[in-house]
Automatic annotation (TrEMBL), chains A, B:
Superkingdom assignment: Bacteria
Protein name: Transcriptional regulator, LacI family
All copies of domain HTH lacI-type, residue ranges: 6-60
Keywords carried by this UniProt record: DNA-binding, Transcription, Transcription regulation
UniProt GO MF annotations: DNA-binding transcription factor activity; transcription cis-regulatory region binding
Organism in which the protein naturally occurs: Lutibacter oricola
Entry-linked InterPro entries: HTH_LacI, LacI/GalR-like_sensor, Lambda_DNA-bd_dom_sf, Peripla_BP_I
Amino acid sequence: MRKKVSTLKEIAQKLDLSTSTVSRALNDHPDISTTTKQKVQKLANKLHYTPNIFAQGFRKNKTNIIGVIVPNVTHYFSSTLIKGILKEADIKGYKVIITESNNDIKKQSEMLQTMAQFGVDGILMSVSKKTKSFTDILDIMNRIPLVLFDKVSYKIPCTQIVVNEAEASYKAIEHLIQTGKKRIAIIKENKFSYNSERRYEGYLKALKQNNIEIDNKIIVSCEDLNLEQGRRMTKLLLSLKHKPDAIFTITDSAAIGVIKTLKRFKIKIPREIAVVGFSNSLYSTIIEPKLTTIDQPGEKIGKTAVTYLINEIENPEERTTSKTVEIATNLIVRDSSLKISY
Amino acid sequence: MRKKVSTLKEIAQKLDLSTSTVSRALNDHPDISTTTKQKVQKLANKLHYTPNIFAQGFRKNKTNIIGVIVPNVTHYFSSTLIKGILKEADIKGYKVIITESNNDIKKQSEMLQTMAQFGVDGILMSVSKKTKSFTDILDIMNRIPLVLFDKVSYKIPCTQIVVNEAEASYKAIEHLIQTGKKRIAIIKENKFSYNSERRYEGYLKALKQNNIEIDNKIIVSCEDLNLEQGRRMTKLLLSLKHKPDAIFTITDSAAIGVIKTLKRFKIKIPREIAVVGFSNSLYSTIIEPKLTTIDQPGEKIGKTAVTYLINEIENPEERTTSKTVEIATNLIVRDSSLKISY
DNA sequence: AACGTTCCCGCAATCGTTTGCGGTAGAAAA
DNA sequence: TTTTCTACCGCAAACGATTGCGGGAACGTT
């Protein structure tokens, strides 16, 4: 069994001190003399003493656990976020409990509940894009520090860590325009997806600033974009009389579908139609031609989110001011779009 | 703050009962009358009572947390394992704490320590292939139930959940032979990698059973196989006078490197050289030609591991018998290998 | 010598829950 | 009526660490 661990009492007895003294000695309390501290430290090391985390948490009402809720751990981007979270949390001495919401709002609010009930010190969440009611989230927020990342919502007044989506897609479209493309299609999700909408914003802005007409025929949307949907949307775009000369998808996996379909129809990439994705996923260098896409620094986002969350946990006065932190992205030009020629 | 939660004492006071009675009522203890139980239940629901997990854990020395240690969460296969773990743990009422070892044995043993000190009820681990000393693992094992999965070691006497690696690669090689290939190369890792060795076993067995000569020139190894190494190894194999007509890699990502290199050298896949990978990673359908590979059901492995672990946690007598559970794999034939012609 | 300080340290309560043991009321048996 | 037996329930200790408070010893100050 687990009863091999030593307790404060044991140390106290062996040293003929009280448990309080031992506790204070270990916590470097000023009331304790240096000699006593040293003696206690020494014996504690020898006995491999480690404080019982439950007694501690129980007493201090602190668990040093942060809860993380993501839609799906198998998405590459999610996993890079998690990597960053784990790394930073480890450094700061926190443990991480991870759960999946699977984009199911019922599950999501359930997870929120159990996390709270479990007593995590703070919650890091990527909100499901289907979330329509925020009451439960707001409720939790009153009790536990919450930081949103990646998929956020302006309806929740807490600190949010995001990439500058609009700017990122603005850069992507700018790039396409600079390479001479004039009829740029976008494949996006419907308006309930926060990220999709912001990326769409950037698209619109870039076109407007370059005096390019916005044509709704080459703006296609669907729910839950994926490779298959990418394929379908591409066929739709190819059936147009006036075809696009570039396709921007708000997702890498959709972009893969686009490329595969274009290749099947023997359309030259990027000369006839250029393709740009979003995410810099693992696929992007596997597919041929290699995909031009936007790199979202997942690890950095995760790390930043943890930093802000722990800050709010440890400094409750910080909790009132909710900020939005934007992480910069990079456009990575590969073979699916033209190079700029001077 | 968090002080909104109600306690046993509160309920007891409002109902003019003792906390013990309330506790027993909530735990469905036979000593308590049905009417009392109902009253308690009702009020508990009304007050949104949830037991303080720390007081509980403190008292019962049980946390309902299982610790998971994997080398790298961003590997697709790892993330599917995690998905399975999360799902099953959630069903069984356990929380999951995840950490990465990054294939660093120091980190790994550190993680093991903090998990133990943290008081997890059990540990699920995929051991780093560099692990040479097992003393710390064995030490932990005496205190906490441990189940190994994916990357295991026969030097640790605990239950292990693996795919039948040897059989899987045997199937792969058999398939290649049946499609007429006679000179089959293998790209593997060095002998410190448990998985690699077992896959190599299957390779050897298949060749022997089909009376095919084993040629060490087309058996190439390296440490930490990846896409780049796949490329390098392929060039090495192509430089041979007597080239292989099929390449089996023990990793999908290496297989991608192989395919990319073969394409660069204008070698027809699968006619001149067929390629088979291992893992059924996400890449396998992105690359062209699509990769023939072995599907490892990650979610199922994760789920199974959790099941066995919780069984050992809740039934200490089970802990003595250590079993090896093998999960079946499937060969998925795609375009990088020939179809069998009858 | 009497008093005030400072430095260390111990006592005991506390956190919320569980559980062994003992106790009481009421019913049933004598 | 007395005794025995259930069926229910409460008392209090326990888990391990933390902390307010109080106190003794040693020293310095008048």
